[in-house]
């Protein structure tokens, strides 16, 4: 009896094996979720420090090929870095000075817009009252308090933006200096395969940023011309806003269209506002048709993933996080793709396979088999 019970106990699985199986299946998922929560909390707390570093990193990624190209042709490193930095400053000035002038013009016309809006709301209130709908009160937009608050807030944002850009350019300068010797450093600490993977990731992000910049510039020009033709005030502001917000995937152009359409409503009424909205829609459709051909598969993300990443990075890092959400998610996807355990996550983040392609491939394969037979 004792012998049979001992044999039965010996046939039982080792408790440590059961624990290891449980850890590998359920505990790993819990550990990953907990790590993501802790990492997200750390990013949220460190956002004031991470935002300028991220912006500087993407500016350096776009500028680094020019600096390396100059160094490869015998240009001294200091001159090459200064050339790249000068190009960045020129691009920032070309964007900043017109934006500052347009914001100043718009702020100066705010009292006129407020008075017009107040009269329109008064007419709306009377019309509703004539149809049996009575509103208790409508906010008086002609009061000067909210305009003063708006001007103060815009001045604070402008001062903060200037100080942040000085810090960003300083970080970009040091990053460009480091990039000139990056290949030699990587050759000492990484294998050729790892260097190839890093180069492919950097090239993918660079391609996306350059292509997105070109398409954003085209979008801004079209919006500027459309608003100028329709007579919407301060068309430069709406063109620049469309250029900047086009970096936000999916919803950026919708957000950029709202203030211009609202201003057209105040200036001309609902009819012209619908015409302006139709123009924005046409521009978005045209850019949406051309952009995939220009960018190719540089993004490599599912539309749902792009939208969710914009919400998540925007919550963690603010408006800058929404602007750089796509390249940040691209870097994460590329890192996951080179991990044997997490490659399935990279596949989930990628776009869905085209069913038409698979049908064609299957039909071609069956045709080849018939020809062989």
Care to describe what's here?
There is one protein chain. The chain is mainly alpha-helical. The protein has a domain at 44-181. 84% of the residues lie in helices and 0% in strands. The protein contains 16 helices and no strands. The protein has helices spanning 2-11, 15-45, 47-72, 77-108, 110-130, 145-179, 182-189, 192-230, 235-245, 252-268, 270-295, 303-317, 319-323, 325-337, 343-349, 355-372. It starts with a helix and ends with a helix. Residues 4-13, 17-22 and 357-373 have low confidence and may be disordered.
Give helix % range: over 70%
Q: Tell me the total number of β-strands.
A: 0
Q: In what range is the share of β-strand residues?
A: under 5%
Number of helices: 16
C-alpha Rg, in Å? 28 Å
Keywords, separated by commas or semicolons:
0% strand, 373 residues, 16 helices, 84% helix, mainly alpha, disordered C terminus
List the helices and strands and how they pair.
Layout: H1 2-11, H2 15-45, H3 47-72, H4 77-108, H5 110-130, H6 145-179, H7 182-189, H8 192-230, H9 235-245, H10 252-268, H11 270-295, H12 303-317, H13 319-323, H14 325-337, H15 343-349, H16 355-372
Helix pairs in contact: 3-4, 3-6, 4-6, 4-9, 8-9, 8-11, 8-14, 9-10, 10-11, 14-15
